[in-house]
Amino acid sequence: MIITRMQLRACPVFSITCGMTRPFEPLFQQTLAHLSNHNCGTYPFGDGAGLMALTTKVKPHRILELGTALGYTCCCFAKAAPQALIDTIDLDESHVALARANINEAGFGDQVTVHHGAFADVLPALADTYDLAFFDGFAPDFSIIKALMAKLQGDGVLVCANLGLAEPAVRKQLHDQLFKSSHWRIQSTLENGGTFVVAKRDVHST
Asked: How far apart are CA 96 and CA 73, in angstroms?
């Protein structure tokens, strides 16, 4: 059985942030305008405040993001975790250039490294492990989520957006991996249930 968004909301560890002022509003609006003008994949994440609240609770030292767009969520991560170093990946060269400019303008250039390339190509070259990983590409692929799992520390947190965009068979596979596997424990949701937060179980400590 596939776990529903309502079931996930019933067991929150991290509260969903509602009614707060959206962080980095000009960058959010810039991303929306870019999407409208270019009809590309730069959909800005809809709950930056919730993502920042989650990040503050996790207190990560290393963050990995798949899907940079114009740098909106990178700025949210960097603001919420000034101690963290962030790696982010995007395939679109123009988005990479815009994201680097936006991140530098926001004052986070020393914290964030923007990598240009396909997720599957760049991930193996990143030698570090991470405390927090964020998938915000178009539709999550099972092999990519498995690769993210391998990059996380023993108790690392995975934030997975756009699960509903995956093909039905892939979606079920991902639900089974994330919500029924002994490797993960459910934490909460963001974006009114559209983005799932799960924590990796440290099998060596159980």
From this structure: 13
Q: Per-residue pLDDT averaged across 83-106, rounded?
A: 97
Q: Quick one: pLDDT at residue 156?
A: 94
- The pairs formed by 15-18 with CB atoms below 8 angstroms and a separation of 24 or more are 15/53, 15/188, 16/47, 16/50, 16/188, 16/189, 16/190, 16/192, 17/47, 17/49, 17/50, 17/52, 17/53
127 has a pLDDT exceeding 80: no
**Residue 103: its pLDDT value, please?**
98
Phi, psi (5° rounding) for residue 147?
-65, -40
What pTM value is reported for the model? 0.86
